[in-house]
Amino acid sequence: MARVASIVLSVFLGAVGLLAQGGDVLSLATGVKSMTCSFVQTKRMVLLYDDMVSHGRMAFLSPDRLSWVYQTPYEYRFVLNGDKVHVGNDKRSSTVDIAENKLFGTIARVMMNTVTGRLDDLKADFGISVKGDAPSRVVCLTPKRREMKQMLRQVELMLDEKTGTVTLIRLSEKNDDVTEIVLKDIKLNVPIDETSFVIP
After folding, report:
1. Residues 57, 149 contacting (CB under 8 angstroms)
2. Contact 156, 137 (CB under 8 A)
3. Model pLDDT, residue 189
4. Tens digits of per-residue pLDDT, 48-91?
5. 6, burial (CB in 10 Å: exposed 0-12, middle 13-18, buried 19+)
6. What span, in angstroms and rounded, lies between the C-alpha atoms of 73 and 87?
7. Fewer CB within 10 A of the end CB, N or C, for the chain?
8. Nearest CA to 7 among 82, 89, 122?
9. For residue 146, what is the enclosing H or E element?
10. How many CB atoms lie within 10 A of CB 99?
């Protein structure tokens, strides 16, 4: 379950990539109906010498579908469709009802509130502050809820204010591990194959 929770946190961070739409650094992408991008995730663990680097793709379709797929060095997928979360690969997988799992429910709710622009709900889960000046501002999210505090200390979002998107996300975990996710080739409001969100 710990590995799954870590993956879900990574997915949540990738979904945060629409935070900086418009002139206000804390306004959200309320007009976004779909999003696709590739990502590179680097995890630096205190107990390991080498970084763990993963590559994959993400797709979002409003109002409540998200697909986060690791492609290399291993295959692993996360699919959120309504009130169900599916994680795993061809060898092993599981499906969770987010109404019955508090951690998954919290993270799924925060993800959807973020990409659909419900800032008031995001403020309920995180303290939000901004560091630096344009165009190099960083949004810092500090968790308020116990479920999130148990795993992470802070989330930092590096903004590309020309495009209005987050391009790098840094997650500082409670155990001092650090995960960085770089979002690339971001495309908004493009057609998406709905089979990406099918839960078996």
Report:
1. no
2. no
3. 84
4. 788 889 999 988 888 888 888 899 998 988 888 988 888 888 88
5. middle
6. 17
7. C
8. 89
9. helix 146-149
10. 11
